[in-house]
Amino acid sequence: MSGVKLSSAASDAELFSEIAKGDTAAFNKIVSRYQARLLNFVYRFTGDRETARDIVQETFLRIYRKRKEYRSTANFSTWIFTIAGNLAKSELRHRKRWHLIPINKETDQDILAEIANQSLGPNHMAEKKAIERHIQQAIEALPPKYREAVILRDIEGLPYEEIAQIVGCPVGTVKSRVNRGRLQLQNKLEQIIDRIG
């Protein structure tokens, strides 16, 4: 440990500088800063919480092992999402299938609050679940490269430049994939609405 006191507001670059020196407290701060986001990101690709946890753990292990190789020319978040994304894609290639996880970010507390709300009857809840299922099916039907771009942009909220670095293609290609993914998603949802409406 380097002995330098880093505040919780320390930048990723400051923390990683300390991690490179072997500071485990700085590493723990990076883990707490990124663990939930990475878990959410990987879970949407694998469809399995345990697999997602394993991949996120492996991501952090690789970061720690390669702590002296990291070059601060790239955003740390880009580097960590690239590692996690590559591990998730490897897992999917291994399993030869893609899963989609619901896009809502409801927690158990949100669900309990909704159940407790007396104004929402069983019909309303059933309709809401049906809509979520249709949206999930529409996203699942997207080609993987469009699905990845849409998830990173619209669900994770990453900027185009960072997505381009994560997926390894130009920004223009990312924008195109997001737009095409959104258009395909819109068409699929319109078909579903026509079918059920």
Describe this protein's structure.
This protein is mainly alpha-helical. It folds into two domains: 12-95, RNA polymerase sigma factor, region 2, helix turn helix motif (Rna Polymerase Sigma Factor, Chain: A, Orthogonal Bundle), CATH 1.10.1740; 110-196, Orthogonal Bundle (Arc Repressor Mutant, subunit A), CATH 1.10.10.10. It is built from nine helices and no strands. The protein has helices at residues 12-20, 24-46, 49-65, 76-95, 108-116, 122-140, 144-155, 160-167, 171-196. The chain is elongated, with a radius of gyration of 19 Å.
Which key features would you list for this structure?
197 residues; mainly alpha; Arc Repressor Mutant, subunit A; 2 domains; 0% strand; elongated
Give the C-level CATH assignment of the largest domain.
Answer: Mainly Alpha
Total of helices: 9
Give a short account of the largest sheet.
Answer: none
What structural class do the secondary elements suggest? mainly alpha
Total number of strands: 0
Sum up the overall morphology in one term.
elongated
CATH topology category name of the largest domain: Arc Repressor Mutant, subunit A
What average pLDDT do the residues reach?
80
Into which percentage range does the β-strand content fall?
under 5%
Rg, Å, rounded? 19 Å
Tally of discrete structural domains: 2
Distance between the termini: 62 Å
Order of helices and strands: HHHHHHHHH
Question: Stretches where pLDDT falls below 50 for ≥5 residues?
Answer: 97-101
As an assembly, this protein is single chain
CATH hierarchy: architecture of the largest domain: Orthogonal Bundle
CATH homolog superfamily of the largest domain: Winged helix-like DNA-binding domain superfamily/Winged helix DNA-binding domain
Percent helix: over 70%
